[in-house]
Amino acid sequence: MTTYVLSDALALAGRHMRHLKRAPQRILSITLMPIMFVFLFGYLFGSSMNVPEGDYHEYIMAGIFTQMMLAGVINTGVGVAEDLSNGLVDRFRSLPMGRGSVLLGRTLSDLVLNAISCVAMLSVGLLIGWRIHGGPLKALAGFGLLLLLGYATAWLGSLIGLLLRHPQAVNSVAMVITMPLTFLSATFYPAENLPGWLRPVAEWNPVSTLTTGMRELWGNPTGNAPDPAFPLRHPVLSSLIMVVALLVVVVPLANRAYERAAAR
Question: What's the rounded Cα separation, in Å, for the pair 124 and 61?
């Protein structure tokens, strides 16, 4: 059964990737948007930002990487909702497919798109002066953690899409979730730059932990205060635990929601 699920999931992932030929704007959205954010934050805001023990160009890149992975909640959620509304799920239900292969194929194809987005951001980041100083193994570990985050957010987006079932509703709810997580964190500026009552919120924000973990692995400035919160003192381990816990919770919930949606 596992073999059937994997083979069906890979076939569906290939189907999603082939559809990019008919919708090339999706490739543009995952490549041009990161480039715009790199230049926007790196040059327009960089001149007014101060980062302890480092350059803002090297500080900001991990934040932009994280932001683009969080955008996967919207992209995947809207895609799943569209599949429900246009009858694609009904056609899948009539086929002898392995259980769980539909969502697995969708999330695997989105993982490939996340990797393409990372390559685009990596290229532009190198152009503006960003460098990785942590060595090749830590560099790969940082990108591995980043893609694991993207995979987890794809499953979260699948769950939201299956529960809401309407692309517009998915987009609105996902924005409500991702925007506060992104901007009330240490993604684009050090947490110590925030007012006193907001600083603990930013320090305990899981997005701050994930971003700080990648900065630590890449040897970039973390921007931490002298005595940061516990997750920021151990960002890599804390990030790994949080992402794995998110997958453990969201994957079975999404599969259960898909079975209910397909049975309607």
Answer: 10
**φ and ψ at residue 71, rounded to 5 degrees:** -65, -15
Residue 247 pLDDT exceeds 60: yes
Mean pLDDT confidence for 235-251: 95
pLDDT score of 2: 60
Among 189, 163, 181, 201, CA closest to 81: 163
Mean pLDDT of 197-211: 90
Q: Which of the 8 DSSP states describes residue 128?
A: T
Give the amino acid at 122: L
Element housing 82 (H / E): helix 72-85
Tokens 């692309």 identify what position?
Answer: 167
Residue 29 structure tokens = 């959205």
Question: Higher model confidence: residue 150 or residue 40?
Answer: 150
Q: What is the pTM of this model?
A: 0.89
Q: Rg for the chain (alpha carbons), in Å?
A: 19
Residue 247, both tokens? 């997958």
**213 Cβ contact list (under 8 Å, min separation 6):** 142, 145, 235, 236, 238, 239, 240
Residues 148, 245: Cα–Cα separation, whole Å: 12
Please state, as a whole number, how many other Cβ atoms lie within 10 Å of the Cβ of residue 45.
13
Q: What is the DSSP string of 48-80?
A: G---TTS-HHHHHHHHHHHHHHHTHHHHHHHHH
